[in-house]
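Course assignment 3, question 2. Fill in each field.
Student: A.L.
Task: Predict the tertiary structure for the chain below.
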Amino acid sequence: MDNRLLCRVLQAQVSAGLRADIAVTGVSMLPALREGDTVTLAACPEYEIGDILVYSYEEDGLLIHRLLFQKGGRYYCKGDNAFRLESVGRDQVIGRVTAVNGRPMEPCPERLVMLSLQVSRAFRECGYDVEKTKQTDSYRFYQKTILNNEVIGMIYRKNEAMEYIQADAASLAVFDPQSGDTHFFDETGIDILSCLQEPCGLEELLERLCRIYDASPDEIRVDVEEFLQQTVDKRVVEIL
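Answer field:
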């Protein structure tokens, strides 16, 4: 069936609340989806970060890739085993994958989204050269932990390539010479970045922060993980 016709048929099915199944082709979503898998689609009023969306994309026709972030009313998606980031309008999205071969879709780990975005950024910084991107630390770490499913703890470090301007004890401005962006941090952010002067994993970082704050690791874990995700995305913190 022609790709455009297939898109229209699937759009009509899911819009009517009918079950829609399609077969996966290609390897761009390994290891989550494999060639020959059958995925079930459902339309949703809103889509969440980590959802696997099915959408029509330019001359490529129908794609099945993961939603990494939303901005300006558009969805930005990428295959787990791919490099390109795709900007997609809401009207291009047919639905999200709810099941694979009849089994409910597993929740997407937050670290997958964060690391996949790093690969996309490395791809852009390498001039959209796949082979150069594969030589970067970002891709090698992603390949080991996500594609090969090796158990490796992430090591974080404050990015010394940034320019740090601290006006007082509770105000820090971080300028990115590469993008021209400036990011601002309060006293808590300053403390976390100070702890990341020396590279460490999450558990060690929590221990360092617990020496500063009267709290247990479990009490601050969620907030620290969110801070790391945001600062890695902004390049203020790097993963080694």
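Instructor remarks: The chain has a mean pLDDT of 90. Residues 217-233 form the longest helix (17 residues).
Grade: pending
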